[in-house]
Amino acid sequence: MREADICALPFADASFDAVICSSVLYHDWVSDVEGAVREMDRILRPNGVLVINVPAFPFLHSAHDEAVMTARRFRKPEIRELLQKQNLKIRRLTYWTTFLFPLAVVARTLGGSKMGRDFERTEASFSQRVLAQIMALEQRLLRHVSLPFGVALLAVAAKERP
Q: Residue 144's domain spans which residues?
């Protein structure tokens, strides 16, 4: 593991077959999101795959976002544009955590969360098992369709050969 600036990665051009950027681009310490995507593209080999996961929908900004230093939430058009500027071919662009979206809206916009988290965590609680089952169902559905809204946004893009 190496620590580095997302906009100045310490790797040679075309070093990786895959780059996973999960829960990074939204942080307040990422000052140049476009530069970060450009840098990830730089280190991808031809036919390499870039996976990006970010929080979705600015109106969901809440105490949770403040707690985890969220500077921005994204929508599909923004991620699509970031990937297309690097000539990355989008293979998948979908919202997810869709089934929990109504609960997140209540928790985030109506003050349902007092601790800066959408849902309080407890050891192996009934609610945790139910949430896990809901997410498992959604993951099976995501194999076949893209979802129109959700708490998060997932993009999978490929760097095509020149």
A: 16-159
Q: How far is CA 136 from CA 56, 94, 98, 99, 146, in A?
A: 20, 16, 12, 11, 15
CATH number at residue 82: 3.40.50.150
On whether residue 1 sits in a domain, the answer given is no
Identify whether the C-beta of residue 15 lies closer than 8 Å to the C-beta of residue 45: yes
C-alpha 85/C-alpha 134 separation (Å) is: 35
pLDDT less than 50: residues of the chain: 118-119
The bridge status of strand 152-159 relative to strand 44-55 is antiparallel
Number of structural domains in the chain: 1
pTM, to two decimals: 0.87
Domain assignment present for 49: yes
CA distance 9 to 2: 9
